């Protein structure tokens, strides 16, 4: 009888079943054939009737920031019938998250047979946050975001026993919990690089995983304001979601965020977003051209006549985008003068100098290409193509002057689905799961022009299979070799032998944000830092003569802000000891997301949200480019080397 009066409060589902959370603290599994199982309560091993010696007791995770307020209450499965107010399932992680009305969070393992095997659903850990309201799981990043009644979002690392990572809030922007109310909903983007947060009283915000505030519906206030900004009587005209946010959801590609207002549930608001060209996965782009892209356009960051940075909107031709929507990959060539753009099928090229698009002449050929990644190798665009008929992957080498199979320079079948790719000079890096690295060398005979018949040869020069318990890589960049003088090689002489040109080291960014250097000669991996979201290798591409940051080896960006890394004159420049970090308390602007570098002026270019007002009901949210110099870090480095009269191993400075 109790089950008959229970009310559904939330649900989650897999391919075979649906799981309902009930107001009496029970869970109900329903198959897609409308077959109901008996309702059950979540059990930890301590109170399970079929406990075995092989099963360890469930753990209670109490974050350090909340230990002072912890009252060590028993778990809901042992004491009461608290309602389940939120459930979420991660099929990839086999993880079920349940939030109870008393604000406790249960992290449960799910059996191999999924939800239909209720006996396989067991509490593995309790998050004793004390004020949890909702959760959202980033399966790719293995991060759990917990929205709290305090108006903050707590991030936990699921790969490390739910270790507390950081707390994000609008407090530093002058908004307290009295302004926002508790967090009502959280939604990660499909690629898990950012997440949106809605509050009960007012507003919506989007953060990157490292804590950069990418977008906010609140009226803009100065950072570190002591008081919460007062809401003007007519502010509702200029601020969406003034009545609070009840639901949010990203589309399948992360270009649109849909939101429902708490006080106006019959209307759905849609916010359009542009993505950054990140050096992740199967695409690698130059840092000298700063690009964002939307579902049907490219946004180019470039200076105007007064050298002020502006964003130029470049619409993808309708003849291509209408058949191959949306835009999925955008990569700039090394010189920054060509763009390769790929949608669901085929690809197009854009000549920035002549402002001309180049298409496949044969639509049938275009539709046979399912681009999963793009690379530039000089004047050649490399396409990682998925062949659906055979479930295989291949690399296609097209000259930029002609998109047609008659001009295809080379077709390289791959061993499986690649997870990371990169290009350095004449070398291509391809990494397969779990961590098999293959390095190919490209040799071209003849001139790359429509009037000649060039021949491309591809040879394997290195193969590594690395066994590591660490999280998988999301980005790998081959880095220049240091010379005896300690200066990184930029351009190699064509007459030099192959072994002297071949890169032997690469930077690895893993899913958990760890940045390390891999020595491919001996397979040794040296950890450098963590909490990294992006990085740029300065010496990996052709440099301008006016490059002001040639002393820099690479930069990284993450929760700690921007960090600059310098080369060493020592015999082993990749050792970790003797690091020196200056100004650790200063951070990169937390409203500016870095896009790339301007080596000729020694600056990092980023983008932030700008809000413009008009007579319309809502404001217009626009990306606004900003530049921040790093020359002071370089000067500080050079002065210290000169004054100390010693040669450092690796110096790491923080950008203010």
Automatic annotation (TrEMBL):
This is Ribosome control protein 1 domain-containing protein. GO terms for cellular component: cytosol; Golgi membrane; Ric1-Rgp1 guanyl-nucleotide exchange factor complex. One of its GO terms (biological process) is intracellular protein transport. Coiled coil: none annotated. SUPFAM superfamilies: WD40 repeat-like. Residues 478-500 are annotated as: Disordered. InterPro entries: Ric1 (IPR040096), WD40/YVTN_repeat-like_dom_sf (IPR015943), WD40_repeat_dom_sf (IPR036322). It comes from Aegilops tauschii subsp. strangulata (Goatgrass).
């Amino acid at each position: 009888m109790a089950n008959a009066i229970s009310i559904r409060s939330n649900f989650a589902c897999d391919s075979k079943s649906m799981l309902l959370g009930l107001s009496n603290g029970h869970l109900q599994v329903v198959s897609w054939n409308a077959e109901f199982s008996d309702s059950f309560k979540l059990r930890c091993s301590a109170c399970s009737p079929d406990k075995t010696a092989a099963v360890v007791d469930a753990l209670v995770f109490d974050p350090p920031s909340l230990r002072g307020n912890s009252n060590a209450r028993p778990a809901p499965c042992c004491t009461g019938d608290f309602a389940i107010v939120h459930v979420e399932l991660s099929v990839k992680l086999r993880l079920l998250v349940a939030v109870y009305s008393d604000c406790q969070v249960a992290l449960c393992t799910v059996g191999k047979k999924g939800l239909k095997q209720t006996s396989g659903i067991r509490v593995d850990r309790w998050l004793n946050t004390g004020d949890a309201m909702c959760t959202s799981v980033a399966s790719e990043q293995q991060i759990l975001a917990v929205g709290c009644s305090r108006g903050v979002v707590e991030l936990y690392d699921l790969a490390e026993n739910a270790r507390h990572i950081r707390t994000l809030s609008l407090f530093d922007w002058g908004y307290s919990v009295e302004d926002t109310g508790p967090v009502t909903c959280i939604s990660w983007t499909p690629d898990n690089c950012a997440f949106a947060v809605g509050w009960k009283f007012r507003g919506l915000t989007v953060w990157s995983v490292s804590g950069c505030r990418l977008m906010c519906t609140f009226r803009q206030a100065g950072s570190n304001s002591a008081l919460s900004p007062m809401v003007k009587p007519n502010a509702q005209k200029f601020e969406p979601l003034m009545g609070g946010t009840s639901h949010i959801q990203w589309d399948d590609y992360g270009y649109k965020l849909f939101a429902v207002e708490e006080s106006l549930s019959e209307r759905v608001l849609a916010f359009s977003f542009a993505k950054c060209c990140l050096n992740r996965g199967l695409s690698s782009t130059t840092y000298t051209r700063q690009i964002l892209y939307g579902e049907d356009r490219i946004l180019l960051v470039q200076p105007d006549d007064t050298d002020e940075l502006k964003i130029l909107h470049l619409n993808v031709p309708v003849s291509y985008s209408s058949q191959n929507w949306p835009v999925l990959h955008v990569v700039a060539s090394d010189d920054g003068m060509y763009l390769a753009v790929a949608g669901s099928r085929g690809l197009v090229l854009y000549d920035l100098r002549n402002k001309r698009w180049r298409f496949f002449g044969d639509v049938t050929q275009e539709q046979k290409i399912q681009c999963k990644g793009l690379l530039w190798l000089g004047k050649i665009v490399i396409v990682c193509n998925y062949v659906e008929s055979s479930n295989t992957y291949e690399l296609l080498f097209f000259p930029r002057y002609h998109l047609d199979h008659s001009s295809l320079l080379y077709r390289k079948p791959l061993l499986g689905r690649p997870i990371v790719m990169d290009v350095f000079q004449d070398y291509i890096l391809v990494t397969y799961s779990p961590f098999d690295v293959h390095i190919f060398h490209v040799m071209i005979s003849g001139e790359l022009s429509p009037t000649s018949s060039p021949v491309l040869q591809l040879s394997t020069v290195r193969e590594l299979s690395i066994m590591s318990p660490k999280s998988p890589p999301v980005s790998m960049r081959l880095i220049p070799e240091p010379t005896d003088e300690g200066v990184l090689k930029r351009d190699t002489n064509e007459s030099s032998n192959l072994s002297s040109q071949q890169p032997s080291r690469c930077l690895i960014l893993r899913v958990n944000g760890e940045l390390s250097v891999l020595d491919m000669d001996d397979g040794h991996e040296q950890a450098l830092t963590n909490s990294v979201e992006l990085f740029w290798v300065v010496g990996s591409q052709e440099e301008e003569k006016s490059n002001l940051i040639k002393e820099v080896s690479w930069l990284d960006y993450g929760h700690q802000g921007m960090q600059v890394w310098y080369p060493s004159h020592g015999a082993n420049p990749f050792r970790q000891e003797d690091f020196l970090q200056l100004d650790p308390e200063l951070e990169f602007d937390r409203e500016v997301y870095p896009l790339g570098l301007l080596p000729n002026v020694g600056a990092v270019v980023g983008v932030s949200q700008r809000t413009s007002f008009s007579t319309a009901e809502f404001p217009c949210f626009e990306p606004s480019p900003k530049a921040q110099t790093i020359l002071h870090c370089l000067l500080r480095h050079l002065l210290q080397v000169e004054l100390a009269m010693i040669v450092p191993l690796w110096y790491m400075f923080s950008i203010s």
